[in-house]
């Protein structure tokens, strides 16, 4: 054994003697700066190293003539032969062609100089800096013309992304997502650490290659791929806390008691009444001062993200594996989100074959806060006994439970659990065979499977009075089960031809694609649990006489077939032309309207390549003019909308008199319309791209005009059709126009102190240009200001001549502050009192017969509604700032939305419940200058959610992200084998500048129906975190 060890030791010593250490520094020929991340490989082996952040390298090489290969993105690959050197520095030359930015355009790539459409780009580093699990949040303010609004601040929620205005009023206006060439149904919910880059096709000419699915624009996502070289391992990890930075001001105990006094006076005049306070029967409540909104908030909720990336490869083979764990506690109790992503990509090249594969897995668990939880808190009174969310019983300070009955609803909501568990699998296989240098054929197949299970439990909750008697609660216990499964499959075959003929270049693409999507779901709900220990459907009542529950299931299938042809031509790189046509067939239409053709054409002129531009080149080194026109379609509405639907469980009486009985029946709820055809979108775009001072300053401008034709809309049918009160029929009922402008400006300065600034500006004007129907107006469903209350109504409409989702509300004219005003207003509102709101009787009557209304009708009703703006901002801006100096880096991302309106439904609800702080300053005989109407109870006319009294300016400017980091010198980190080590602190949403009085001016944008309506949505939080990034 000792001899064997000596032999191994001797062999090791000899082996070491056959190698030597080679060191050096790599610099750029452009400005002499050192180059980090340069790959250095011993030719013919997989052995090598990478330069550190200061451009230094260290490698063991054989003691013989050896060839080293030096490669780096943007630089020419160099091979250097070494013999007995121990130190060798190298200057690398810039690869001019590779420095031209490459843009993904769908079914291919182009140099940015060759692009003739409107395409935006965001790199992966910008996305990871945002430190969010939501792609939309990371994109906000990064690309002009891309509107991103948060539907909710709830963990796991997704933002709404709209490109160049609404693309549909009934279907989904969201863009199409394409990941590594595979289309997705909705947000693919990737980890930001998986993404290499994002390219956004904004104009119709660029998106037309996706035909029926490109009406809302296209987001092309390229995930990280491996590169030949030594294996690289990187870790990105952060941990932080979250806080709610604003609130809806509510009254404390003392303020509430005073306002209660005023309210009783306002309701009873000079007679204050014998029972002006609910505390009369419970004096112990004087000891309470409960902040209900604060009770359901989770202060210092944590957020964390940990991502590990491994990549590498050798000649002909590469790999990239990324795994990410994200966890976010909710700032509202009973909410949170966990997600684990892993993605593995490989690439293989052998001879004429190029094969790529990708596999992604996502596991997630989302806990939902009870619906309208904040509104539930607003209605509770500060004198009520505080509830401990973890307690199992309720009692007030006296030991009785009289107040507990009133609080049982809130208590049950605080104990509700609502959890969704999901898994998602996606993958693709792509093979390309190069038939020649100019011609190749490629086949790509991919698909995804998603499974979700959601279980909501309202636990059994019992309330007893002080005598031990069981009291009825306001919330029934029960269990809700929902599960769904979706599958998608895509198959594409493309033929590509690329040939240069002297100064002419031609690219031709032919494509055939097939897509199939399947969806199935099941829902069941039962009430009255037997025990909180048996939380399954069978653990609830089976008694049909008490409405034990309900259930349903559905199965949907749709498919799409497409043919695409595209030709791209340029002459001398100056004159550019692209034409394409796609023909799609969708199963969602009847056979006579199944197929649609979507052509496009675009052209560009690189003016700066002309000889007459030479005198301007030292200042303006690049100038391009672009123009395009394209057509896209939309078939993104419910499956089987061209068929009639039948609903069961419509009982009717059958049989002779005396022996009649109920029989199960059915009723038609939707009529078939086999003439439904495609929504089509036509868009023209004119753009300019300029670069100054050797590309240090760049500027782009785009102007577009979009016409949407044959919009699909479900029109309500009159009851005389016999189809019920909510029966609809899908019709092509209207047209819509979007027109706007976009500007992007960037400046970069490189040196010891490097900095950059980027500015985006986008403005879109939307208008309904045609609307069928007698009144040319349709109120949108789901757009009430608050939920489940009297005096509520719909407020967002589709009306010819106005933007989609415009607010139509009653107009107010201040308060009644004099007897003269009171006497005049009682002509139309006999019950009016001093301090009440005055509603304007709009001009609806034509008294002189000229066809123009010139008088009111003496009534306040829906005919008096007038236009009051919308939740759509007039324009948006983004500002991105970055700076680096001696290892320190600072970045900031600002975003602003200007001119939109918000209906403050949270404020309206709290006013209605008598808890809003404004009520303390209401009109009274002692406060006659107040602009706040006298509070006369929740059902008084002073509370109407559909009036302009609750509308506020929704303009805001937000510091979306700010980060300060420091990279430790490589001389220190190299000693422990770490190539790069960065520490940083960062904040998200730490500052919002706005005059809006609610929780957040961005919340309340969960679609066209409720855009701009704050309904007590889950608030957006500020996040403060610290993190590390290192690789070796």
Please characterize this protein's 3D structure.
- The protein has 1032 residues and is mainly beta.
- Among the domains are: 81 residues, Sandwich (Immunoglobulin-like), CATH 2.60.40.1120; 128 residues, TonB-dependent receptor, plug domain (Ferric Hydroxamate Uptake Protein, Chain A, domain 1).
- 9% of the residues lie in helices and 47% in strands.
- The chain is built from twelve helices and 53 strands.
- It has a 22-stranded antiparallel barrel. Strands 10-15-16-13-14 form a five-stranded mixed β-sheet. Strands 3-2-5-6 form a four-stranded antiparallel β-sheet, with no helix packed on it.
- The radius of gyration is 33 Å and the shape is globular.
- The two termini are 37 Å apart.
Radius of gyration: 33 Å
Q: Which residues form runs of ≥5 with pLDDT under 50?
A: 1-17, 271-276, 396-402
The CATH homologous superfamily of the domain at 99-226 corresponds to TonB-dependent receptor, plug domain
Give the mean pLDDT: 85
Q: In total, how many beta strands?
A: 53
Largest sheet: 22 strands, antiparallel, barrel
Assigned CATH architecture of the domain at 99-226 = Beta Complex
Shape: globular
How far from one another are the termini?
37 Å
CATH third-tier fold name of the domain at 99-226:
Ferric Hydroxamate Uptake Protein, Chain A, domain 1
Question: Which terms would index this structure?
Answer:
12 helices, Immunoglobulin-like, 1032 residues, globular, mainly beta, 22-stranded antiparallel beta barrel, Ferric Hydroxamate Uptake Protein, Chain A, domain 1
